[in-house]
Amino acid sequence: MVKITNLDEKDYVILDALKHNGRFSSQQISKKTKLPISTVHNRIKKMGQLGVIRGYTVLVDQKRTGMIGAYVLVVVNYHPPDGSTIDQYELAKKIKQISCVEEVSMTTGATDIVVKVQSKNMDELNEFVTKQLRNFKGVDKTQTLVVLNSI
Asked: Is residue 68 domain-shared with residue 38, that is, in the same domain?
């Protein structure tokens, strides 16, 4: 991945507005940031083309839907007993394909991968962790953190 170093303060102001509300129109961002609407529109378009803005998403209120949020910490065994080698990036991409997975991040420290999950109920979360995630070749240990509240 190439780091885009030519973002300036205006780009970051626009990104900040979009992070707070991805549904803001260019006109609303223009009013909020005091930037001309054409500048806002063109910069959003450019950041989309450059891959700085990868998409827009919906934040679901777990309490209103009854869904369960969780973070699953994954420790990878890069050299399993069969003599093969595990590629962390490839493993993360496979995990991301599971429907209840919202986000997969590769991290430093004692945990190699953090998986953000949104499940319909505890049974679905249990099925994901015990029957799917733990059966991926290279997954050594998992620790599941259930979200009690998000602010």
From this structure: no
Whether residues 39 and 88 fall in one domain:
no
Q: pTM here?
A: 0.76
Asked if 74 contacts 133 with a C-beta cutoff of 8 angstroms, the reply is yes
The SS3 of residue 110 is coil
Q: How does pLDDT run across 92-139, given as a tens digit for each residue?
A: 999 999 999 999 999 999 999 999 999 999 999 999 999 999 999 999
Domain that holds residue 68: 62-146
Q: Are residues 77 and 139 in the same domain?
A: yes
In sequence order, what are the residues at sequence separation of 6 or more whose Cβ sits closer than 8 angstroms to the Cβ of residue 86?
76, 77, 78, 79, 80, 137, 138
Residue 31 sits in a domain whose CATH number is 1.10.10
Structure confidence at residue 4 (pLDDT)? 56
Cα separation, 17 vs 32, in Å, equals 8
